[in-house]
Each structure stands twice: as structure tokens, then as C-alpha cells.
Design a protein that fits this description.
Length: 176
């Protein structure tokens, strides 16, 4: 971590064996999540640099992107097996001592993510529904219902991979 004012490194979090592909602070800044090509998601205490938790999916696919949910209770991860997984990090769900994913999005007719870091985000579909939007290597944008995990919409318009997406936090707008 770097202090923006001084430009100095204040902490190093050395726990991934492969390149780190994504980092995100939780809402109140007390934790940082990091994802890596080593297939691990680590959650860190911002103040101490202590690793609080390590999460990984079966088969240990490389993590291409992650983001804390707006309420800070979940982490959305995208992995190079073309799956989006929602991990419960507050009041976590465990089986056999291992953190289990809470929900999984994607599938044979969903987004493609096998070689690049493709971003995903939480978005507002309408006033009643929250969704997840994901970039894809097939040039499309995929929108999944947050609760049902169903594919809601596929947006086309690019001839190459869609690697960056962002959503407006208050109105149903997506930028790609």
C-alpha cells in the first residue's frame, strides 16, 4: 500500500505466488481483498496487514477480477474458468472448514473469461432489482440477476473482448 501524500510505501502484503490481478477496499476501508493468478483471494486487515482469510474455488482457477459488494458482506470474483462467484465474507458460509461460494453466475451460455482480466460490477437493473454486469472475451456484455442468478440480458456491439465495465451507483447506466 502507498501513502498518496508522501508517495511512500507503507505496507507490503506478500502472499500470492503469481501476479495480483485485482484489489479492492471494502466500504469502510478496514479490509482489502486481493485476487491473483495463483487462484487465491485473500482478505487483509488494512491497519495491520494481517491476512484474515484465504478463499479459493474448487480446481483453483486463476482469479481475474474481484470486487466487494456495496454492503461489504460479499466478494464477487471472476475466474479464468468463465465463472463469476459470490463469496460470503461476513457471517461466512463454511463446509468442512472451507469458505464456500454463496452464488455462482455464468454457464455454457454466459460470459467467456479464459485468458484476460475481465471486469464485473454490481449494477441497478431497475428500482426493484440489483444485477451483476460482466465483460466477456466474446465481445459481449452479460447482465445477471443478483438473486436468481439468471442471465437477464446480453448486450452486443464490440468486435473484440470487453474487459472493462463500470456501472452508475444510482441509475441504471453501464459504461464499457
Amino acid at each position: 500500500m502507498w501513502d498518496i501524500r508522501s508517495g511512500e510505501s507503507v505496507s507490503t502484503l506478500p502472499a500470492h505466488s503469481d501476479p495480483v490481478t485485482s484489489v479492492d477496499f471494502n466500504r469502510d476501508g478496514t479490509c482489502i481483498a486481493s485476487g491473483s493468478y495463483d487462484g487465491l483471494i485473500r482478505i487483509w486487515d488494512t491497519a495491520t496487514g494481517e491476512c484474515l482469510k484465504t478463499i479459493y474455488a474448487d480446481g483453483n482457477p486463476s482469479v481475474s477480477f474481484l470486487r466487494f459488494s456495496p454492503n461489504g458482506k460479499y466478494i464477487l470474483s471472476s475466474t479464468l474458468d468463465s465463472k463469476l462467484r459470490m463469496w460470503q465474507v461476513a457471517g461466512e458460509r463454511r463446509e468442512g472448514g472451507k469458505t464456500r461460494f454463496f452464488k455462482s453466475y455464468g454457464g455454457p451460455n454466459g460470459h467467456v473469461n479464459t485468458k484476460f482480466c475481465a471486469f464485473s460490477d454490481f449494477c441497478i437493473a431497475d428500482k426493484k432489482r440489483q444485477s451483476i454486469v460482466s465483460g466477456s472475451e466474446d465481445g459481449k456484455l452479460y447482465i445477471y440477476d443478483l438473486q436468481t442468478m439468471d442471465l437477464q440480458q446480453t448486450l452486443e456491439g464490440h468486435s473484440d473482448a470487453v474487459l472493462a465495465v463500470a456501472s452508475h451507483k444510482e441509475v441504471p447506466l453501464i459504461a464499457r
